[in-house]
């Protein structure tokens, strides 16, 4: 049964004065992987035009370059859960930090393989942060703490755009302008080594998940972590027994544990896959991977296109903050439905505006009204995504699966997300060349279809303890 807000309040009041700040630090440190996830995913936005110019590639080849990291993302997401169950959540964070740093340096050289290495790190971070945060958070605050992952992602996206714009300014507006012997776009990719090192340092300062500690017989350490995150007033013996009892019915998750439904996977696994796929098929990452090139394709100059990309990332942060306030108050499903409705309208308006794209004498433009509508529609689309699906999907994926399959199911769902992300990423340049408005019509259809999916199949997890997910 779902706990009522009244039942949760005492627990929240006990945890707040003593331990909430400590738990916030732990969650924020773990979410640094989300920051790198967002930074690494979006920083390529600033290099798209320069890569196309330097290597003289077609739209199809350019799409493969941009999407190279997503191959690694799927691999990292699929393997992170199993690795975490073997060596611990913290160790996976440290592995990801090393891979992020190596990818930043390698991508700036440049060498395409390192984008795939960075993708593996992103995939690992996308799985381990929500799982870890869910396992260390008091239930009354779990939704808000879990939303740190998305807050970190959007902050990483915003900072990457600010860094790109700053480097472009230093290079006098030339993405291939040289700074200290390297082209501007190489600096954009290489600077990521700084937050990667910080992530590694923070992973040394936070405790291992109590659930993992109990799974490997380290009960004393688990009790200490539980006391630190849930408070001295909590009956630690009872909590340890609850976790042990829940785990006693579990085996180490494997792919086989996810099977058994009418269509191969268990129904709850398909719901997780559906959430992940819909999150990407609305085209959100077109904005974050291609926005500079997108605005330039409708006549906006490069400096302004970078500024628009940064401005959109700020809207993304605002929407995420709204979601963090609302996710534990109104629930996951209502928030997702609000977002789906808003995205459907915004995408539809963008499709209408882009249908007026014209090219005269090699100059591409939109009429004044349609250009204004396109800009506002893009920002409202990002806002509604951020205040709903951006946060809700990660919260649900960290909560909705039974404990016996949580890590493995989260890995499969996250892998599906990266496959869908790859599909959208590699098809957009070709779709845009064919018909930019038509591309946005397709994204609009998926936003509309997400509404009945939420209503019929997505469970509400607000207020439930992880041990209740059965």
Question: Which tags fit this structure?
Answer:
two-stranded antiparallel ribbon, mainly alpha, 6 strands, 470 residues, 20 helices, membrane
Output mean pLDDT.
82
- Unreliable parts: 1-15
Structural class: mainly alpha
Number of helices: 20
Coarse morphology: globular
Radius of gyration: 22 Å
Provide the β-strand percentage band. under 5%
How far the N terminus sits from the C terminus, by CA atoms, comes to 11 Å
Q: Largest sheet, order of strands side by side?
A: 1-2
Percent of residues in helices: over 70%
Give an overview of the whole structure:
The chain is mainly α and 470 residues long. The chain is 76% helix and 3% strand. It contains 20 helices and six strands. Helix 4 packs across helix 6 (112-136), helix 8 (148-170) runs antiparallel to helix 16 and helix 15 runs antiparallel to helix 16 (302-326). The longest helix has 52 residues, at 406-457. The termini are close together. Residues 26-462 form the Major facilitator superfamily (MFS) profile domain. It is a multi-pass membrane protein.
Provide a concise account of the structure shown.
By secondary structure, the chain is mostly helical. It is 76% helix and 3% strand.
């Amino acid at each position: 049964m779902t706990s009522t807000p009244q039942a949760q309040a005492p627990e929240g009041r006990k945890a707040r004065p003593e331990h909430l700040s400590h738990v916030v630090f732990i969650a924020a440190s773990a979410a640094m992987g989300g920051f790198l996830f967002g930074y690494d995913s979006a920083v390529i936005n600033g290099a798209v035009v320069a890569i196309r110019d330097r290597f003289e590639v077609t739209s199809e080849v350019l799409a493969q370059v941009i999407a190279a990291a997503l191959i690694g993302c799927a691999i990292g997401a699929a393997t992170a859960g199993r690795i975490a169950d073997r060596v611990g959540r913290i160790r996976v964070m440290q592995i990801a930090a090393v891979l992020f740093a190596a990818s930043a340096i390698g991508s700036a050289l440049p060498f395409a393989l390192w984008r795939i290495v960075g993708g593996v790190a992103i995939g690992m971070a996308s799985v381990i942060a929500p799982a870890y945060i869910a396992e260390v958070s008091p239930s009354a605050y779990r939704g808000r703490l879990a939303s740190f992952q998305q807050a970190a992602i959007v902050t990483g996206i915003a900072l990457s755009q600010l860094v790109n714009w700053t480097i472009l300014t230093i290079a006098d507006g030339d993405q291939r302008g040289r700074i200290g012997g390297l082209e501007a776009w190489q600096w954009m990719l290489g600077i990521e080594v700084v937050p990667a090192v910080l992530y590694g340092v923070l992973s040394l300062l936070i405790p291992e998940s109590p659930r993992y500690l109990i799974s490997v017989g380290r009960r004393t350490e688990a009790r200490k972590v539980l006391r630190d995150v849930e408070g001295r007033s909590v009956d630690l013996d009872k909590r340890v027994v609850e976790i042990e009892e829940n785990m006693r019915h579990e085996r180490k998750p494997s792919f086989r544990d996810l099977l058994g439904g009418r269509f191969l996977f268990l129904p709850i696994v398909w719901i997780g896959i559906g959430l992940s796929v819909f999150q990407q098929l609305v085209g959100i990452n077109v904005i974050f991977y291609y926005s500079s090139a997108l605005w330039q394709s409708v006549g906006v100059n490069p400096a302004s296109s970078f500024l628009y990309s940064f401005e959109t990332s700020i809207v993304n942060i605002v929407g995420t903050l709204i979601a963090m306030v609302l996710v534990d108050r109104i629930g996951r499903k209502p928030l997702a439905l609000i977002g789906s409705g808003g995205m459907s309208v915004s995408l539809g308006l963008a499709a209408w505006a882009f249908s007026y794209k014209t090219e005269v004498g090699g100059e591409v433009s939109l009429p004044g009204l349609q250009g204004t509508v396109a800009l506002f529609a893009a920002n409202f689309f990002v806002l509604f995504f951020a205040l709903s699906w951006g946060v809700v999907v990660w919260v649900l994926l960290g909560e909705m699966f039974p404990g016996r399959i949580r890590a493995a199911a989260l890995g499969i769902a996250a892998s599906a997300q990266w496959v869908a992300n790859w599909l959208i990423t590699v098809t957009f340049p070709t779709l845009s060349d064919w018909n930019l408005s038509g591309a946005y019509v397709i994204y609009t259809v998926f936003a509309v279809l997400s509404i009945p999916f939420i209503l019929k199949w997505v469970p509400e997890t607000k207020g439930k303890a992880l041990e209740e997910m059965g």
